[in-house]
Amino acid sequence: MPLTHRSLLDRAAGPAAPRPSTAAGSRSRGPVAPLAGPAAEVLRIVSDPRTPVFVTAHAGGRLRYGYWRPVGSAGGTGGCYVALPTEVCEELRATGRITLGAPVTDPGKTTYQVSAARTLSRAEGAGRARHRAA
């Protein structure tokens, strides 16, 4: 199901409402294929802690993923807002590679911070499994 403003608001409406997306590891998935092209670039941007990425769900249902790109690190002023490809971001969200944070709701839109889903390396996963078994 595509993410829309209404579906996001419905999910965030009540205290027991589920999160718009699930964290990695909360459900079993098959092997994850490596990313290439635009999806890899979007995930790289979302994974960078110095680049906060947000999705805005407008009242009409339009979604816009984006981030602020500063002009340069020397001056500290100026920059531009960069939109990310919605279709690519939605595919990453649908496959559990990115998650959405708590909603900030305005009259005409709702904004969520976008984060890369936390994944366990094989070593971490194996260590956790051994720890639970003990």
Mean pLDDT: 76
Report the β-strand fraction as a percent range.
15-25%
Structural class, by secondary structure, is: alpha+beta
The outline comes out as globular
* End-to-end distance: 40 Å
Largest sheet, in brief, is: 6 strands, antiparallel
Helical content stands at 25-40%
Classify the oligomer. single chain
Identify low-pLDDT runs: 11-28
Give the helix/strand layout:
Elements: H1 5-12, H2 37-47, E1 53-58, E2 63-70, E3 79-84, H3 86-94, E4 98-100, E5 104-105, E6 109-116, H4 122-133
Structure notes:
The chain is an alpha+beta fold and 134 residues long. The chain has four helices and six strands. The chain has helices at 5-12, 37-47, 86-94, 122-133; strands spanning 53-58, 63-70, 79-84, 98-100, 104-105, 109-116. Strands 1, 2, 3, 4, 5 and 6 form a six-stranded antiparallel β-sheet that branches. A hairpin with a 4-residue loop joins β1 (53-58) and β2. α2 (37-47) packs across α3. The protein starts with a helix and ends with a helix. Mean pLDDT is 76; it is low at 11-28.
What brief labels describe this structure?
134 residues, alpha+beta, 6 strands
Brief summary of the model shown:
This protein is α+β, with helices and mostly antiparallel strands. It has helices spanning 5-12, 37-47, 86-94, 122-133, and strands at 53-58, 63-70, 79-84, 98-100, 104-105, 109-116.
